[in-house]
Design brief:
557 residues; seven-stranded antiparallel β-sheet; 36% helix; globular
């Protein structure tokens, strides 16, 4: 129905999106049925701009309730007051002081729109003028009441690639919250995680087959036993060819003399892959077919050889463990055009035909950059895959090898960044991003430490665990930021359905900023605000919450 109204209006997606404060791509997804607005107010704004009549507004409400599986409580009782006159507004009387105390809210606007439209007693033109005036009042009030309060510094611009989206609710997979294991003892994280990736864990090829045909599985078995005890899916990462397999190749930066190259004879590769898969059995859930494809410190062979290795490894894995997920070698340095040319070349040679998922390396340009800046790389990757003609799930499997050269973040900043690393992954769910592996667990010498082996979790680790606790059994239905969803420009939000005390799914929102702070109304039906330090406060519809770089969860009735 939205598509029909849009066609009738004659407005382009760009113009209509500008009028309703939504990106043209998001609007296109609404109109072609790929996603559904999480708030009926968005539907109302679109319909109003397209000239929808009273009956159409009510029909849209019914469709929206059917599509989302829930009722819009502001309109649940239906239109009342037959014959009532439309809302009268005097814009010239509005002042900033009056706006701060005005009782006009988005809820009131939606209620007034449906009730007035349903009467049919006033001319439609008068109705539209009234709605336009009320909408302008609310938007201006939002800007005044919710203006960001900065920490004495200019707020950086909104990161590129952060398009808002909404869709039918999808389960939040616990495996999205993965960590790379920088440990070989078999010890596991003492806070909640969802998946493990084995790298820098003494499980390189050169360490497990130091002599051709002689295998040492002791470290691998300790790690797999630990993962099995905790019920965690495991991703094994290939890399680090033995010196005997490529004696003349460049050495990698590892003490055992591993090579950053393919073996001279790919039959040796076949043998190792087969031995590993047969030994591990179903204890390994997924295989990443090389640690990094396009960085010479990890791989300096040809693209053609890497595609051949991918094809051969997939054939072996499918024979001995057909249920395992095969992840193509990840592409790094995604800010650079050379990385995308490499991806296209790998695709042209048929590499992605042999994988269930595509590996990528998502990280900020600088450790101190907001995690949300990773969305620009996700956007670029999506476009490159569209050009290549592939649409695989994306698994983000790590960071750049020079991360340890950066200064550590303070405890508060590290905690905020670690949580928002995973929230950025959830935000990119609409771009087919399925897994995020934080680098790393067990390592105490990186800028963001979540838990050094043998020590208690840091604030970052505790907060990441609590984020997962918030979202256990939840479903995600939308993410957005700034003016696209009528919030201050530095505010980000994802909407979920989360289980309450009785296990019933109730609406919830997680909000945060990429920089600075902003006072934002909690919204109609708000019940409690939950913080990552474990504290909770009760709130009501008229309350506000100071949103900061540390995310908060708001639960609704």
């Amino acid at each position: 129905m939205l598509a029909g109204l849009k066609r009738r209006s004659g407005l382009s997606y760009e113009e209509l999106g500008r009028r309703v404060f939504t990106s043209s791509s998001t609007l296109h997804r609404y109109c072609n049925g790929n996603s559904v607005p999480g708030d009926y107010g968005v539907v109302l704004r679109i319909a109003k701009e397209c000239g929808a009549g009273p009956d159409e507004l009510n029909e849209l409400l019914r469709y929206w309730e059917s599509a989302t599986g829930r009722r819009d409580e502001e309109h649940a009782s239906g239109p009342t007051g037959v014959g009532a006159r439309p809302v009268a507004v005097t814009p010239t009387a509005v002042t900033p002081t009056a706006l701060k105390s005005t009782a006009v809210t988005p809820t009131a606007v939606k209620s007034a729109a449906v009730k007035s439209a349903a009467t049919g007693s006033a001319p439609l033109v008068r109705l539209r003028l009234a709605l336009a005036a009320v909408t302008a009042l609310v938007l201006l009030g939002t800007l005044v009441a919710s203006a960001p309060r900065n920490r004495g510094a200019e707020i950086p611009p909104v990161p590129v690639g952060a398009a808002s989206w909404a869709q039918a609710p999808l389960p939040v997979d616990p495996a999205l919250f993965g960590v790379t294991m920088n440990s070989f003892s078999g010890a596991m994280p003492s806070f909640r995680v969802g998946a493990l990736r084995l790298w820098d864990s003494e499980t390189r090829w050169a360490q497990m087959e130091p002599v051709r045909g002689e295998f040492d599985w002791s470290v691998l078995d300790r790690l797999l036993d630990g993962a099995e005890r905790d019920g965690l899916p495991t991703l094994f990462t290939f890399g680090g060819a033995p010196a005997w397999a490529a004696p003349d190749a460049r050495k990698a930066a590892y003490p055992e003399g591993a090579r950053a190259a393919p073996p001279d004879d790919l039959a040796d590769w076949d043998t190792f892959v087969r031995a590993l898969v047969r030994h591990a059995g179903d204890r390994i859930d997924a295989y990443e077919l090389w640690v990094t494809a396009n960085h010479p410190h990890h791989y300096n062979g040809s693209v053609e050889t890497l595609v051949d290795m991918t094809r051969r490894a997939n054939r072996v894995i499918q024979r001995w463990d057909p249920d395992a997920t095969v992840v193509c070698p990840p592409i790094t340095d995604l800010w650079k055009e050379e990385a995308h040319r490499y991806l296209l070349r790998f695709a042209e040679l048929g590499g992605y035909q042999h994988c269930d998922a595509a590996g990528v390396k998502l990280f900020q340009r600088k450790v101190t950059d907001p995690p949300e800046t990773m969305l620009e790389a996700v956007q670029k990757v999506e476009r490159t895959f569209q050009q290549a003609g592939y649409h695989l799930p994306l698994w983000s499997t790590g960071t750049v090898q020079t991360i340890q050269l950066n200064d550590p973040l303070d405890a508060d900043a590290a905690a905020d960044h670690a949580v928002r690393f995973f929230l950025t992954g959830l935000y990119a769910r609409n771009r087919n991003l399925e897994r995020m592996y934080f680098y790393a667990w067990g390592n105490g010498k990186i800028p963001v430490v979540i838990q050094a082996e043998g020590q208690r979790p840091t604030k970052a680790g505790i907060h990441v665990g609590r984020l997962q606790q918030w979202l256990t059994g939840s479903r995600i239905r939308s993410c957005g930021h700034g003016g696209q969803i009528a919030l201050p420009e530095n505010v980000w939000q994802c909407e979920f359905l989360v289980p309450d005390e009785r296990g019933t799914l109730v609406p919830a929102r997680i909000r945060w900023t990429h920089a600075g702070t902003a006072d934002v109304p909690v919204g109609a039906g708000a019940r409690t605000v939950h913080r990552l330090d474990g504290t909770t406060r009760e709130v009501g519809t008229g309350d506000t919450e100071l949103v900061t770089e540390r995310p908060v969860l708001i639960r609704y009735r």
